[in-house]
Amino acid sequence: MSTSLILPVDAIRERLNADPEFKLAARFWYCDLRFKVGEDLYFMHVENGRVQSFVQGTHGFDPYTINVAGPVEVWEQMLADKPKPFYHDWFAASFHHPFEFGGDLESAYAYYYALRRIHAIMGECWRAERKAA
């Protein structure tokens, strides 16, 4: 397993904004998400079903409502084409692996299908980027 995993933020943002399932599941949702992949931080801002920004890195004071975090090895398993049991979902992984899924859980559960679409599209974009390299 590698020690670094870079998410293709532009491809993920574009794919989410073009995805009709995400648009439907995320309508009326305003949220800031923080993704921690190993030691790398990513921040996504969603407004009414649209990803307004998705960036790698931090300014030190980035707001977030929902936190999704884990070691690179777990992320690699979760972004695989056919994840093993309990790597297929962020919530399941938080119970069975060294993985965090937290923050405003009321919002997370209300928009969980949107979060699942984010996870699916992250995996698709990450795998496509790896194949292209």
Question: What is the topological layout?
Answer:
Blueprint: H1 9-18, H2 20-25, E1 30-37, E2 40-47, E3 50-56, E4 66-70, H3 72-78, H4 90-96, E5 100-103, H5 105-110, H6 112-132
Parallel strand pairs: 1-4
Antiparallel strand pairs: 1-2, 2-3, 4-5
Helix pairs in contact: 1-6
Outline the structure in words.
By secondary structure, the chain is α+β, with helices and mostly antiparallel strands. Helix content is 43%, strand content 24%. It has a single domain (9-132), classed as SCP2 sterol-binding domain (Nonspecific Lipid-transfer Protein, Chain A, 2-Layer Sandwich), CATH 3.30.1050. It has helices spanning 9-18, 20-25, 72-78, 90-96, 105-110, 112-132; strands at residues 30-37, 40-47, 50-56, 66-70, 100-103. The protein has a 5-stranded mixed β-sheet. It starts with 8 loop residues before the first helix and ends with a helix.
